[in-house]
Amino acid sequence: CSVTAAVAALGSKLGDYQVHFSADHLLALCDYVHNTLIRHHRLYQYVLGRDQDVQLTVARLEVCAPPRPLPLAQGVDRASWRHEQRVAELRLAEAQGRTCTLLLKEALPLEREHRLQRAFLEAPPPGQALSREELENLIREAIRIQMECLQELLQYEIQSTFDILDLKLQKKVLDLSAPVPFPLCIAGQPGQDESLKLHKASRARKGRAKK
């Protein structure tokens, strides 16, 4: 009976507003009321007219406060910070270059000994006499191995030296173009403040004399 009354009331209201709304708008409104309120009328009555079992879910959320920022007095200008970071990168690259050079100096003798041992193993056994040609070949092979290892070490040291010099040059350029910290603090030379006070006092005496 309540649904019938609701449909009748809806038809009456739609008839009253035919002048204000178009036919499409009236059909859309009728469709909305019919497919929502009227169709689910008993569901609304059941949910709103009876006591329902409540299921309460509790979740604990721990919120951490953000870290306290450092005082502004300890802040660094962005340009100065970037300059310091670049200088630190150049220092690290220089240290890595020196470390690689030392490691190569330690590794090359081991490589040289390994290659010499392999060359000696290919030679005739110790109890067998060597001919002049075999001895010359063995000596030439040993000299060649020594020269190749030495050449490799010299080439790497030269390249590493040039790289380190280039890094030092970049650091020198950065030092020359270092940003001026803000605010600019200029320390007066000894006696500068005193001379400034004397100059102000002299100007004050001249002003009184003119009066």
UniProtKB/TrEMBL annotation:
Highest taxon, organism lineage: Eukaryota
Stored InterPro entries: CLAMP
Protein name in UniProt: Uncharacterized protein
